[in-house]
C-alpha cells in the first residue's frame, strides 16, 4: 500500500467483530448503491472505469493551451478549485519552472484588488481561461468569470472563444448556456460526482495536464488505490484503518483533527482534505473538525496550543519518506553558529528529527498521533493518496451515520448574501 498508517494507540483493539461488521455493511451498501447519498458515488470506480478517450481529449486540449497561452486562469471554488490546486502545489518543486503553462486561480474568493491586478499581470502574457463550476451558478466564480470573459473578449475579440474552456454539468446551469451560446470547448462534471470528489475528472485533470504534469500517472495511482483499498480487511486496507482510528478518537473525546505536514508543498493537500472531510462529515451536530498546520512554521506558533492547550485534539502527520532534492550541512571552520554538530546530515534527516521530536512532545502532552506515510511526491503517489482520502472519508462519514455527499449547511450564507445584495427573489 502506498499510504501506510500508524497509530500511537492500540490499533488491533479497534478491529472488533462489531467494527468489522459495520465496515462490511457500509461497503455492501456502497457497492449496491443503497447507502445514503448513493447517487453521488460515481467517483468510487471512476479511476478504473474512466473513458480513455476522455484522457486523450484532456491531454490534447492541454497541449493546445500550452501552444496558445503562457498562463491558464482557472476559475472555480471549493471542489472546483482545491483538487487541481492541491496536486499542482504538491508536484511543483519550489522555485523551479514546470514544462507547461503557469496556472493562476481566480474566483475562489471575492477581491477586487486580486482580479484587477491579475488582469494587469495578464496584459503581458498570452492567456487562456478554464472556468469550472458543476452547478454553473456559484456566485464567486461567476463574478470572476464575468470580468475575465470581458477581458478576453476585449483583448482577443472572436478568438476569445478559442481560449475559453468550460467545465460544468452536461445538461444544466447558466454556465452551460453561456458555453453553448459562445461555442466554448466544454468538459463535463459527471452528474454522480460531487465537487470535493471530482479531482480525477476533467475538473482536476485539465489544469494539471496544462501545467505539464502526467495525468496518466496520477490516474494510475488512483486506480491502484481503488483496487488495493477495495477490501474490508482492516489489516490490509489503510483507508479503513484511518477511518476506524478517526472514529475511535472522535468517540474518545477528540473532536478536532489537526493534519500536520513537514513540507510546505503539501499545504493545499491539507486544504483539499479540509473541504473533503469538513463538508462530508460536519453535519447534524456531528463530525470531526479538520484543521491543519505546517511544521516547523507552526511549531513556533500553534505548537504551543497543541502541546498545552485544551485537550480535544489529535494529530495526523502526513509524512513523505523521500524527497527529490536535498542539501547536506557542512562543517564550518569557526562554528560561530554552533551548528557543526549537524555536519554531514541532510536537511531531510534534520526534518525527520523535527518530526520525531514533535511526535514525542505532543504525545507526552496528551495528543494522540496518527501517521500517514507516503513514499514521495510523484504523480502516482499523489493520485493514490487523494483516492485513499476519499474512500476513507466515505467510510468515516458512514460510521457516523452521516450522508458524505451533501452539504446543506453551505446554503445558509448564500441566502443571506443574496438578500444583502438584493438578488431578486431574496
Ligand atoms: O462547482 P460549483 O457548483 O461551483 O460548486 C463549488 C463548491 O461549492 C459547494 O457546492 C458549496 O457551496 C461545494 O460543495 C463545491 O465544491
From TrEMBL:
Coiled-coil stretches: none
Superkingdom as given in the UniProt entry: Bacteria
Cited InterPro entries: G6P_Isomerase (IPR001672), Phosphoglucose_isomerase_CS (IPR018189), SIS_dom_sf (IPR046348), SIS_PGI_1 (IPR035476), SIS_PGI_2 (IPR035482)
Function: Catalyzes the reversible isomerization of glucose-6-phosphate to fructose-6-phosphate.
Family: Belongs to the GPI family.
UniProt subcellular location: Cytoplasm
Taxonomic lineage from the root: Bacteria, Bacillati, Bacillota, Bacilli, Bacillales
EC identifiers of the protein: 5.3.1.9
Pfam families xref list: PGI (PF00342)
Keyword tags: Cytoplasm, Gluconeogenesis, Glycolysis, Isomerase
Name under which the protein is recorded: Glucose-6-phosphate isomerase
Reactions mediated catalytically: alpha-D-glucose 6-phosphate = beta-D-fructose 6-phosphate
This protein's record includes keyword Protease: no
Biological process, per Gene Ontology: gluconeogenesis; glucose 6-phosphate metabolic process; glycolytic process
CDD domains for this protein: SIS_PGI_1, SIS_PGI_2
Listed pathway(s): Carbohydrate biosynthesis; gluconeogenesis; Carbohydrate degradation; glycolysis; D-glyceraldehyde 3-phosphate and glycerone phosphate from D-glucose: step 2/4
Amino acid at each position: 500500500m502506498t499510504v501506510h498508517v500508524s497509530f500511537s494507540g492500540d490499533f488491533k483493539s479497534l478491529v472488533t467483530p462489531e467494527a468489522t461488521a459495520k465496515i462490511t455493511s457500509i461497503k455492501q451498501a456502497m457497492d449496491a448503491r443503497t447507502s445514503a447519498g448513493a447517487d453521488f458515488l460515481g467517483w468510487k470506480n471512476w479511476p478504473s472505469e474512466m473513458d480513455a478517450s476522455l484522457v486523450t481529449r484532456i491531454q490534447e486540449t492541454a497541449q493546445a493551451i500550452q501552444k496558445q497561452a503562457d498562463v491558464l486562469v482557472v476559475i472555480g471554488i471549493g471542489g472546483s478549485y482545491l483538487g487541481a490546486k492541491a496536486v499542482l502545489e504538491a508536484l511543483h518543486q519550489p522555485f523551479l519552472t514546470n514544462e507547461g503553462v503557469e496556472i493562476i486561480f481566480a474566483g475562489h474568493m471575492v477581491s477586487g484588488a486580486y482580479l484587477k491586478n491579475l488582469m494587469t499581470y495578464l496584459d503581458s502574457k498570452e492567456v487562456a481561461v478554464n472556468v469550472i463550476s458543476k452547478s454553473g451558478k456559484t456566485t464567486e466564480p461567476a463574478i470572476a468569470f464575468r470580468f475575465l470573459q470581458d477581458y478576453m473578449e476585449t483583448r482577443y475579440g472572436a478568438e476569445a472563444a478559442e481560449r475559453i474552456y468550460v467545465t460544468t454539468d452536461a445538461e444544466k446551469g447558466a454556465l452551460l448556456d453561456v458555453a453553448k451560446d459562445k461555442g466554448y470547448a466544454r468538459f463535463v462534471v459527471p452528474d454522480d460526482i460531487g465537487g470535493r470528489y471530482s479531482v480525477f475528472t476533467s475538473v482536476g485533470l485539465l489544469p494539471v495536464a496544462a501545467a505539464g504534469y502526467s495525468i496518466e500517472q496520477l490516474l494510475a495511482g488512483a486506480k491502484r488505490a481503488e483496487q488495493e483499498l477495495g477490501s474490508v480487511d482492516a489489516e490490509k486496507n489503510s483507508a479503513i484503518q484511518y477511518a476506524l482510528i478517526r472514529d475511535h478518537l472522535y468517540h474518545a473525546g477528540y473532536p478536532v483533527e489537526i493534519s500536520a505536514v513537514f513540507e510546505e508543498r503539501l499545504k493545499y493537500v491539507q486544504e483539499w482534505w479540509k473541504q473533503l472531510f469538513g463538508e462530508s462529515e460536519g453535519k447534524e451536530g456531528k463530525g470531526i473538525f479538520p484543521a491543519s498546520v505546517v511544521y516547523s512554521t507552526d511549531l513556533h506558533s500553534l505548537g504551543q496550543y497543541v502541546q498545552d492547550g485544551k485537550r480535544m485534539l489529535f494529530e495526523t502527520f502526513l509524512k513523505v519518506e523521500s524527497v527529490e532534492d536535498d542539501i547536506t550541512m557542512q562543517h564550518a571552520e569557526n562554528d560561530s553558529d554552533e551548528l557543526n554538530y549537524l555536519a554531514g546530515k541532510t536537511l531531510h534527516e534534520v526534518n525527520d528529527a523535527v518530526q520525531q521530536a514533535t511526535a514525542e512532545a505532543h504525545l507526552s502532552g496528551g495528543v494522540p498521533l496518527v501517521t500517514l506515510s507516503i513514499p514521495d511526491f510523484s504523480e502516482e503517489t499523489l493520485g493514490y493518496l487523494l483516492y485513499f482520502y476519499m474512500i476513507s472519508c466515505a467510510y468515516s462519514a458512514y460510521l457516523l451515520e452521516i450522508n458524505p455527499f451533501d452539504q446543506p449547511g453551505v446554503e445558509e450564507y448564500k441566502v443571506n448574501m443574496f438578500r444583502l445584495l438584493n438578488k431578486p427573489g431574496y
